[in-house]
């Protein structure tokens, strides 16, 4: 599969570049939260670590369900069926509202279920306040995701990039104002990070929908604009594709974030170092993820158009690009580990632990790039159930138990073997297993005549 078709590489990179910048900007808001909280104090940094461990999987699961819109819209473009695209957008809105109610109830009840974990009272209070603040930004965030995936399904990625950059820039002064206080706005510490990010999401949602109602490419959609009642057939079609996407995302992200709760017995310094490394790796993961998202659109379009030969060329090229990208990210991570960690914290103990975790993170970059690229190709044809199954086995039945054993050396947390390093070694194991399984699925679906089957 290591073949680079220059024409396809150009198409993928042109599509992926705005996605990379936009994804980096959105993820960068979480990085700003981490840095601001780290500068305020390590209890606030630890609270943001736990808050992110809840917010990220909840938000990504909901976004994953809505991500079904991207291949849906791309296939309507390949089949030249604008009416189907219009219906898909409206049903995406209904999904977003329902998902926001469900996820919001989880975040707003944090003060109750956080009591089940062994947390210092100060950390628990800050975490609860942060999640409550983030809950108010959930609906705007999901409404943004709906129109974003609609735009991306049309190949219009630059506008989302611009909005994401502006939101990232806006989030910086908002963070400073709400964390440290300004004028009548009180000092909120880590909770202020949640307030700032929610406001930034509202800005993104308003901007994205303004673009929809003003861009010339959507004039035909607007002429026929009207609120549609829930179409249960379309909703079921989106859920059938989207829930496995969301589950697969949750299995991977959940492995990273759930560990924040499993390592609480190791102390605040370890938890803070874990959050720093998660923050960095989430940022660099946007590079292969954006390539995978571009691949989903391209595969969806070619699948809708019935162009099998070109579809195969696209996948081969994407795999070659993913491996090159994985190698480059691994090298950069090793070379810059010390410098990046020092941007997050001045605490010497936390920095020392985090630097070691950065080196372990470099080990799985190729596997991560390959598995997410494979998942992107399979999403393009709606083959999402297999991705869900493979990632569940790789991350939760193999990776998580291996990490727990490597960390504690026993079923209890009374002793320590490799500590937090054990969990990060398990990421290498889980992602490698996922990459092998998904590559096998790619070969089966696209390279033996099966790719056009439903």
Write a structural description.
The chain is an all-alpha fold and 454 residues long. It has one domain (6-446). Helices cover 81% and strands 0% of the residues. The protein is built from 18 helices and no strands. It has helices spanning 6-40, 42-66, 69-78, 82-108, 110-113, 121-135, 138-153, 158-180, 190-212, 219-223, 232-262, 268-284, 286-305, 308-344, 348-362, 365-380, 385-408, 420-446. The chain is globular.
Low-pLDDT ranges: none
Tally of individual domains: 1
What class do helices, strands and sheet pairing give?
Answer: mainly alpha
Tertiary shape: globular
Helical stretch tally: 18
Rg is 21 Å
How many β-strand stretches?
Answer: 0
Compressed to H and E, one letter per element, the order equals: HHHHHHHHHHHHHHHHHH
- Termini gap: 23 Å
Q: Top keywords for this entry?
A:
about 80% helix; about 450 residues; mainly alpha; globular
Chain-wise SSE layout:
Elements: H1 6-40, H2 42-66, H3 69-78, H4 82-108, H5 110-113, H6 121-135, H7 138-153, H8 158-180, H9 190-212, H10 219-223, H11 232-262, H12 268-284, H13 286-305, H14 308-344, H15 348-362, H16 365-380, H17 385-408, H18 420-446
Helix pairs in contact: 1-2, 1-8, 1-9, 1-12, 1-13, 1-14, 2-4, 2-6, 2-7, 2-11, 2-12, 3-4, 3-7, 3-13, 4-6, 4-7, 6-9, 7-9, 8-9, 11-17, 12-14, 12-15, 13-14, 13-16, 14-15, 14-16, 15-18, 16-18, 17-18
Quick structural overview:
With 454 residues, the protein is mainly α.
């Amino acid at each position: 599969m290591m073949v680079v078709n220059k024409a396809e590489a150009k198409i993928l990179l042109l599509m992926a570049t705005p996605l990379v910048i936009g994804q980096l900007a959105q993820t960068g808001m979480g990085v700003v939260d981490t840095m601001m909280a780290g500068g305020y104090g390590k209890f606030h940094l630890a609270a943001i670590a736990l808050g992110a461990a809840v917010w990220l999987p909840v938000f990504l699961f909901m976004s994953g369900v809505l991500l079904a819109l991207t291949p849906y819209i791309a296939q309507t473009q390949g089949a030249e069926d604008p009416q189907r695209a219009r219906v898909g957008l409206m049903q995406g809105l209904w999904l977003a509202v329902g998902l926001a109610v469900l996820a919001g109830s989880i975040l707003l009840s944090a003060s109750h279920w956080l009591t089940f974990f062994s947390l210092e009272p100060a950390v628990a209070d800050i975490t609860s306040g942060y999640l409550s603040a983030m809950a108010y930004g959930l609906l705007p965030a999901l409404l943004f995701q709906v129109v974003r995936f609609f735009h991306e399904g049309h190949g219009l990625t630059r506008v989302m990039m611009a909005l994401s950059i502006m939101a990232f820039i806006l989030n910086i002064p908002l963070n400073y104002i709400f964390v440290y206080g300004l004028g009548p706005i009180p000092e909120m510490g880590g909770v202020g990070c949640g307030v700032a990010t929610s406001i930034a999401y509202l800005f993104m949602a308003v901007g994205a929908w303004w673009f929809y109602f003003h861009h010339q490419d959507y004039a035909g959609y607007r002429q026929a604009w009207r609120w549609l009642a829930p179409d249960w057939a379309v909703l079921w079609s989106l859920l059938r594709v989207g829930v496995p996407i969301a589950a697969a995302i949750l299995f991977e992200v959940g492995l990273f974030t759930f560990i924040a709760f499993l390592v609480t017995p190791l102390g605040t310094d370890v938890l803070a170092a874990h959050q720093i490394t998660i923050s960095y790796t989430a940022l660099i993961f946007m590079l292969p993820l954006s390539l995978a998202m571009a691949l989903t659109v391209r595969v969806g379009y070619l699948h809708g158009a019935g162009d099998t030969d070109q579809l195969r060329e696209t996948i081969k090229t994407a795999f070659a690009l993913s491996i090159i990208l994985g190698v480059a990210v691994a090298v950069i991570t090793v070379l810059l580990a010390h410098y990046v960690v020092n941007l997050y914290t001045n605490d010497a103990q936390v920095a020392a632990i985090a630097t070691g975790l950065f080196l372990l993170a470099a080990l799985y970059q190729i596997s991560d790039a390959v598995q997410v690229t494979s998942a992107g190709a399979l999403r393009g044809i709606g083959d999402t159930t297999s991705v869900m199954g493979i990632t569940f086995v790789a991350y939760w039945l193999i990776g998580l138990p291996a990490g727990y054993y490597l960390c504690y050396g026993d079923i209890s947390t009374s002793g320590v073997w490799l500590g937090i390093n054990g969990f990060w070694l398990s990421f290498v194991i889980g992602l490698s297993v996922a990459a092998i399984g998904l590559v096998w699925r790619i070969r089966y679906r696209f390279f033996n005549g099966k790719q056009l089957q439903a």
